Amino acid sequence: LLVQAQANVQVLQEEELEFLADPGTPESLGNQMVVTNNAAYQANDLDAYDSDCDEINSAKIALMANLSHYGSDNRAEERVLNELKHDEKAYTSYEYSQEVESLKHTLSEYLKEKESFKQKITILKDDLQKEELRNIDRELALEKEVKELNNIVFKRNQS
After folding, report:
1. What's the predicted TM-score (pTM) here?
2. Which residues contact 1 (CB under 8 A, 6 or more apart)?
3. What is the mean pLDDT, run by run of 10 residues, along the chain of 159 residues?
4. Where are the annotated coiled coils located (predicted)?
5. CA dist., res. 35 & res. 41, Å (int)
6. Where are the domains positioned within the chain?
7. Which phi and psi angles does 25 have, rounded to 5°?
8. Among 24, 41, 97, 134, which one is least packed by beta carbons within 10 Å?
């Protein structure tokens, strides 16, 4: 019985070990029944323990699968957030580039208008200068006429 208990990897109490190891103890049917029942209970306990271990391992596997699923969800969420940030930056960059293009167009229009004004100013300056020259010529002509008229008046007064 001791060998059988050891073969089944059973944990025996100290009294059970002494009883089974004592050669003077008669192996009666009652003793064998107690040991057999005890072994059966221990085997059932071992089976229940094995079953619990299997359930724990299954639970661990399911938990790890769930964790990896949530981990991949987190990575996917992080990837989506990064894509959203990138898209937002790209959109902001696009808005800025549109604004820059608009400002460039406005600046171009202002520069064209400025050039047009410069041309008008140049034309007006030329016209003014021509007018001043004509006025100077008229003034000189008028002064010349005044002198002639003064000479005529002077000669008449002397005659």
Report:
1. 0.40
2. 20, 27, 32, 35
3. 53 54 50 48 55 70 69 72 86 91 96 97 97 96 95 87
4. 100-134
5. 10
6. 2-158
7. -85, 125
8. 24
